Amino acid sequence: IAGITQAPTSQILAAGRRMTLRCTQDMRHNAMYWYRQDLGLGLRLIHYSNTAGTTGKGEVPDGYSVSRANTDDFPLTLASAVPSQTSVYFCASSAGTSGTDTQYFGPGTRLTVL
Amino acid sequence: GQNIDQPTEMTATEGAIVQINCTYQTSGFNGLFWYQQHAGEAPTFLSYNVLDGLEEKGRFSSFLSRSKGYSYLLLKELQMKDSASYLCAVMDSNYQLIWGAGTKLIIKP
To answer: How far apart, in whole angstroms, are the C-alpha atoms of residue B97 and residue B100?
Structure first.
């Protein structure tokens, strides 16, 4: 069982380009999340999905979009990348959305926008 | 606004005990989590507190006081592999996690 996988592991991208970060989980978790982690800041929620077919905006959604066509996959798209989107991106999932539902994280994608 | 505060960095000696504090101000409270994150890796779950008191799990313990908006993570018998960042996160009234910036723990032999 892989848990959560993310691709690519790292990417260097020119500003203005479109990029999709992939996230797949095999735990049949209902909820999935995208965070970005920047030096000196806590993890910040970009978008989330409580169940397949639904998505919601987190703390920093601007410039990003997501879709949740099925339970397993939750891709994050940067429509036109900007240097401020340089960050480490983590995908996470949890069985549900209650306080007792632990979030499990993928290995992350290190993105550099030049 | 919502805020989670924890020290930026702490240093401790192998075999010793260290306490990492976390204070929070959030809109609502549905539990407090501690995660461990080694450099270049993903955060991994350590503990969850929703009621006041101490939760012990092997060498790690976590304490919560909801009235004070305060938690701590206690690490005993420190090992070199405990060198990592420790992240405090609070689940708010919308069931979203609000994260602290993390405490980098350096263990010296």
So the answer is: 10
